[in-house]
Specification:
The complex is a heterodimer. By secondary structure, chain A is an alpha+beta fold. Chain B contains 2 helices and 2 strands; from the N terminus they run αββα. Chain B has a two-stranded antiparallel sheet with strand order 1-2. Classes of the chains: A alpha+beta, B mainly alpha. Chain A: InterPro entries: Beta-prop_IFT80_2nd (IPR056456), TPR_IFT80_172_dom (IPR056157), WD40/YVTN_repeat-like_dom_sf (IPR015943), WD40_repeat_dom_sf (IPR036322), WD40_rpt (IPR001680). Chain A: Keywords: Cell projection, Cilium, Cytoplasm, Cytoskeleton, Repeat, WD repeat.
């Protein structure tokens, strides 16, 4: 990726340009010390003077009033706030009329920022005060006061907090009084500029120590740059939070959100005092010390998928390279390319007016449809459809260009969604809530309706990243997420009936990705690269999970690596310094997944045996995966073989004992028990009328209360329960303390002969019943 | 006698026997003096002209010399600033080179991992063939 810069030969402003701001993707306003406000139209390349301010106003900072306010959309911003050196801020309309001037600070007003909703304005000044103003310019409060000038200020993503500079320190102060203030030393020199992105919640700071730094919102340092030759005078996040720009003397830099630099330009500009990203995030404008306004386009983005490599060579041109045969196709677009995504054999490109869908099989005839609103902020792809997110909503399209659905939830804010907070699979869409970060909304992709009973998935702590698995049946759709403590959890998205368990499968997880062709998950845990070959194992046999993992030391990847993609059997990881690392994952588990999904159990067993003969270290993993898969699909023969191969003799024995059970229902129930689904097992038995078996299950689990409850409710085997209870108490030398048991024990005499006879009878009865319905047995996968 | 009388009356006759108040000798001397004076004035004027043109010339020379001097100073300054400019340019280029080096390092790392994958896959293929 690189920046293509351009500026006029002669500067339009006579003095230094202090600030710039975009209204639309093609229109920019700039203010200068020569008191002029200029308007730059990039479509017509015209520069016109909007207004000449009075001679005593030296502009310092400008910020446009936000566009989207409470769902009401305006096509463009209508007014802006301009702060000046005489201690005032001015609300100025688009045509240049000064609507209001407000005496705000003693000394210059160094920065002014609207919050995201446009309900409040914060200004900071040389007098060290931070003041909050209403939309109309009435003073609401003085948030803080300090001895040193405040050079820069930014709102938090939820507009509840304000970040500002205090000499070498950064301070985050919530608007609520008495809330905890976060303060830390960030630089060795005075901090000149900062920015806080609403999408990724990361903070940028730059100062006179010639460095720029990236922080998370808890004040943890994520990246610190090498010292430059001159102080860094400006930093700015791109709207989508994937990139940021850094400006210094004769220097313009484009960086990734993790801090490493994509490109460096050395234009002849003097110091760049202010940088603004256009609203679609494709270009930046810089306010230069020598009176120039510099424009820079982001070009040469690259997308890779299997054997295709796509580069955005110019604003409207893409070059597609097929690495296998070196064929090159050029794709031309009518408008500027804003976003693109390449996955699942399709390339989706959004320009300012249209959306193009290409198939990798045919680059010549794209499918084109018009977009409702220009600026698409995110494209997500699944195998069968893709998701477009713009300022107005979320739209699911098929690859034929048909609008499938448009999911909504109350309080939805689409401008803060990114690939970590939205996940799409063939049948499900998951969106993390921004207002309550513990909540994930789940939608049926095809209808756009909330899934199941409509209740969102709620976790006990804040969630940072979510991902849906891509393959398999809708009923078994799983979602994994990482929470604030960096723990990795898995749960099922189907939420009707009983509450699905949220099970922790990893700790210290920074990043994760599902495979595109099978339900294999990979992630980075602390310093280990881990592949969960069959994450569903936790629902089948939790003890087996460690055996289904592949782990590799990842300390060589340095700090904070990110998984970029996991396609086929290759995982791609980006290190903190920006270099890509490709890792090969064994192809066998994917093949195993394939066999199992088509119920080819014999092939699966053969595959595992084959792997055993070739690579000794893998076979345990393969057998463990197969065991879990077999149990999940209730194929006990295969499970038995697999468990035997990994030496879990106890489990083999249990499976054998299941096989000997007389009826289909009890076998099913015991398979459920095997996976730890006690409630399901009991329910199944009760439904089949096998009351005694249900009671026995509870007795075996020492679940005495439930056993007695069942016995009393169905008026049978109360003596059996009491008998076993007595025996249990005698074995451990204890006295009965449970009131209910005491109550029932009073009127009953335990007679073991009678109990045994009754049990015999029950088993015989069950056998008879099973024999009476032999046709059903054939459909059961349990075979002898 | 007449002469004497005339002499007493301060009158004189010249050669042409015209009556003269001034002694003809003196008159002639006066005329000569006048002639000489005229010549002198003419000569002085000419001299002045010559000197004037000389001064002009010298002035011009001075101006030219001054010009050249300024030029020389300018050139010297330019030379100095060019050295500085070069230094700045060098600095800029150095920064660009560092950037490219970092990019190269990234590509090198990526290439290495790709090579490793290739080796892995070759090994896998070999293994597969031998198995069959």
């Amino acid at each position: 990726m690189r920046l293509k810069t351009s500026h006029l030969k002669e500067p339009k402003h006579k003095e230094l340009v202090s600030c710039v701001g975009w209204t639309t993707p093609d229109e920019l306003y700039s203010c200068s010390d020569d008191h002029h406000i200029m308007k730059w139209n990039l479509l017509t390349s015209e520069t016109t003077q909007v207004v000449k301010l009075p001679d005593d106003i030296y502009p310092i900072d400008l910020h446009w009033f936000p566009k989207n306010i409470g769902g009401k959309k305006q096509s463009q911003a209508e007014s802006f706030v301009l702060t000046s050196s005489d201690g005032k801020f001015h609300l100025i309309s688009k045509i240049g009329r000064v609507e209001k001037s407000v005496e705000a600070h003693c000394g210059a007003v160094l920065a002014g920022r609207w919050n995201y909703e446009g309900t409040a304005l914060v200004t900071v000044g040389e007098d060290g005060q931070i003041k909050i103003w209403s939309k109309s310019g009435m003073l609401r409060s003085t948030l803080a006061q300090q001895g040193t000038p405040v050079y820069s200020v930014a709102w938090g993503p939820d507009s509840e907090k304000v970040l500002y500079t205090s000499g070498k320190q950064l301070i985050i102060k919530p608007l609520q009084p008495n809330a905890k203030v976060l303060q830390w030393k960030a630089h060795d020199g005075v901090i000149l500029k900062l920015d806080w992105n609403s999408v990724n919640d990361l903070i940028l700071s730059a100062g006179e120590d010639c460095k720029y730094k990236v922080w998370d919102s808890y004040g943890r340092l994520l990246y610190s740059s090498q010292p430059h030759d001159y102080p860094i005078t400006s930093v700015a996040w791109a709207p989508d939070g994937e990139l940021f720009a850094v400006g210094s003397f004769h220097t313009l830099r484009l960086c990734d959100k993790t801090g490493w630099s994509y490109a460096l330009e050395k234009p002849n500009t003097g110091s760049i005092f202010n940088i603004a990203w256009s609203t679609d995030g494709t270009q930046i404008a810089g306010a230069c010390g020598n009176g120039h306004v510099i424009f820079a386009h982001v070009v040469e983005q690259r997308w890779e998928w299997k054997n295709f490599e796509i580069t955005l060579t110019k604003r409207r041109t893409m070059e597609v390279r097929n690495v296998v045969n070196d064929a090159v196709d050029l794709l031309e677009f009518r408008d500027r390319v804003i976003k693109a995504s390449l996955n699942y054999g399709h390339l989706v490109v959004s320009t300012s007016l249209q959306c193009y869908v290409f198939s990798t099989k045919n680059w010549n005839t794209p499918l084109i449809f018009d977009l409702k609103e220009g600026t698409v902020s995110l494209i997500l792809q699944a195998e069968r459809h893709f998701l477009l997110i713009d300022g107005g909503g979320i739209y699911l399209y098929s690859y034929e260009g048909r609008l499938i659905s448009s999911p909504k939830f109350p309080g939805m804010r689409t401008d803060v969604l990114n690939a970590q907070t939205v996940s799409l699979s063939n049948d499900t869409l998951a969106i993390k809530d921004k207002a309550d970060e513990k909540v994930i909304y789940l939608f049926e992709a095809l209808s756009g309706k909330p899934l199941g009973d409509g209740k969102p998935l709620t976790h006990k702590t804040e969630i940072t990243e979510i991902a849906l698995d891509q393959k398999g049946l809708t009923n078994e759709r799983k979602i994994v997420f990482i929470d604030k403590n960096r723990d990795l959890y898995i749960t099922s998205v189907k939420r009707f009936g009983k509450e699905q368990k949220i099970i922790k499968i990893g700790t210290m997880t920074h990043t994760l990705a599902w495979n595109d062709t099978s339900n294999i998950l990979c992630g980075l845990q602390d310093t280990r690269f881990t592949v969960w070959y069959y994450p569903n194992t936790v629902y089948v046999d939790k003890d087996l999970l460690p055996k289904t993992l592949y782990e590799k030391d990842a300390s060589e990847f340095s700090k904070n690596p990110q998984i970029v993609r996991f396609v086929g059997n290759q995982a791609t990881i980006r290190r903190a310094d920006g270099s890509l690392i490709h890792l090969n994952i064994s192809p066998y588990p994917a093949i195993l997944h394939e066999y199992v999904s088509s119920s080819k159990w014999e092939d699966a067993v053969r595959l595992c045996r084959f792997v055993k003969t070739t690579t000794a270290y893998e076979d345990q993993t393969m057998w463990a995966c197969l065991a879990a898969m077999a149990v999940a699909n209730k194929d006990m023969t295969t499970a038995e073989i697999a468990y035997a191969s990994i030496g879990d003799i106890d489990k083999v024995q249990y499976i054998n004992s299941i096989k000997e059970l007389p009826s289909k229902e009890s076998r099913m129930a015991h398979i459920l028990l095997f996976s730890g689904n006690i409630q399901d097992a009991e329910m199944l038995l009760l439904q089949a009328g096998l009351i005694y078996q249900a009671i026995q299950v509870n007795i075996n689990l020492y679940n005495w209360d439930r056993a007695l409850e069942l016995a009393v409710k169905h008026k049978t085997h109360v003596d059996t329960v009491l008998g076993y209870r007595q025996k249990f108490l005698e074995d451990f030398g204890k006295k009965e303390t449970n009131k209910r048991f005491l109550q029932y024990a009073e009127g009953l005499e335990v007679d073991w002969d009678k109990i045994k006879a009754k049990i015999e009878m029950e088993i015989a009865k069950e056998r008879e019943r099973a024999a009476a319905t032999p046709a059903v047995r054939a459909s059961v996968t349990v075979q002898h | 006698m007449a002469k004497g009388i005339l002499g007493d009356a301060r009158l004189h006759f010249d050669e042409l026997n015209k009556l003269r108040i001034l002694d003809p000798e003196v008159a002639q001397q006066t005329t000569e003096l006048k002639e000489e004076c005229k010549a002198f004035v003419d000569k002085i004027a000419e001299f002045q002209k010559i000197v004037g043109s000389l001064i002009e010339l010298v002035d011009q020379l001075a101006k030219a010399a001054e010009n050249e001097k300024m030029k020389a100073i300018g050139a010297r300054n330019l030379l100095k600033s060019i050295a500085k400019q070069r230094e700045a340019q060098q600095q800029q280029l150095q920064a660009l080179i560092t950037e490219k080096k970092m990019q190269l390092e990234r590509y090198r790392v990526e290439y290495e991992t790709l090579c490793k994958i290739e080796a892995d896959q070759n090994e896998f293929i070999d293994q597969f063939i031998f198995q069959k």
